[in-house]
Each structure stands twice: as structure tokens, then as C-alpha cells.
Amino acid sequence: MNAFAAPATESLEHKLIAKEKMSWDLAVKADAASYRALHAADFFTVSSGGVTDRVHSENSALDSNVAFQHCDLSDFSVKRLADNAVLITYHAKADGLDHGKAFMMDSFASSLWMRRHGTWLNVFYQATAAGK
Question: What is the mean pLDDT of residues 70-91?
């Protein structure tokens, strides 16, 4: 094993976790251009409502009628699937207002990041409600 392999992997892990956290921050701040720039053209999400394409997923995440009051992302795990593919899983807890109604979210999330043309982009996001 190459003595330099571990730091490179750790660096990539930290970089992609930072991008995942940034994605949430940009959605909360409604910075649409920066948020969309993190997604591949074929980005999609999967939730209890089914499969959602990039446009509808991004529009939902940037909905001006949703305001987060608290957002906590924790328990990150990073799995390198290939040289150009990394799966990130984590726990997401948040609360706020959705169209004036209070909401609380507690879910397990996963994102697939792929390096395309030298840039790491999110191609897939999935969230599953945490069991009680």
C-alpha cells in the first residue's frame, strides 16, 4: 500500500463532505446559481414521493415558502465506489416552516458524487425518514 494513499483519500472525503454541507447551506440561503452548479445535468432524487428529475428537485429545494430554522448534518460516512464515484451517507435533522406550517425532518440521506470532466458533481440524492 502506498504511504501517500490515505491522506489523498482523506482529503477527497473532506472535500466532498464539505460540498455536501455547502449544498444544504446554499439551498437554505436560496443561492440558486451556486446550488445548481453542484449538480450534474442528469442529477435526480429519490424520496417517498418517487423519482424526481433535476429541475423539479432543485425547484423544491429552493422553494421560497420553506424556511429552515435549524439544520444539523452528522454521522458522515464516505465510500469510494470507483476512481470517479463516491457515495456519502449521513444523518440529517432539520426544522422550520413549510408554507407557514411547522415541520421537523429526521432522515438518513445519501448522495452520489461523480467526477466529470475534472469536477466533482452530485448526480443522485436520496432521503429516508428515520425510524422512531
Answer: 96
Which domain does 21 fall in, by range?
5-129
Domain count along the chain: 1
Under the banding of pLDDT at 50, 70 and 90, the label for residue 66 is confident
Could you give the CA distance from residue 25 to residue 129 in angstroms, rounded to a whole number?
A: 20
Name the band, by pLDDT with cuts 50, 70 and 90, for residue 125: very high
30: which DSSP letter? T
What's the rounded Cα separation, in Å, for the pair 132 and 106? Answer: 9
DSSP strands (E only) in 1-132: 39-47, 50-53, 66-82, 85-98, 101-116, 119-129
Confidence class for position 14, pLDDT limits 50, 70, 90: very high
Phi then psi for 84, rounded to 5 degrees? Answer: -115, 20
Specify the CATH number for the domain of residue 57: 3.10.450.50
Q: Is 3 in a helix, a strand, or coil?
A: coil
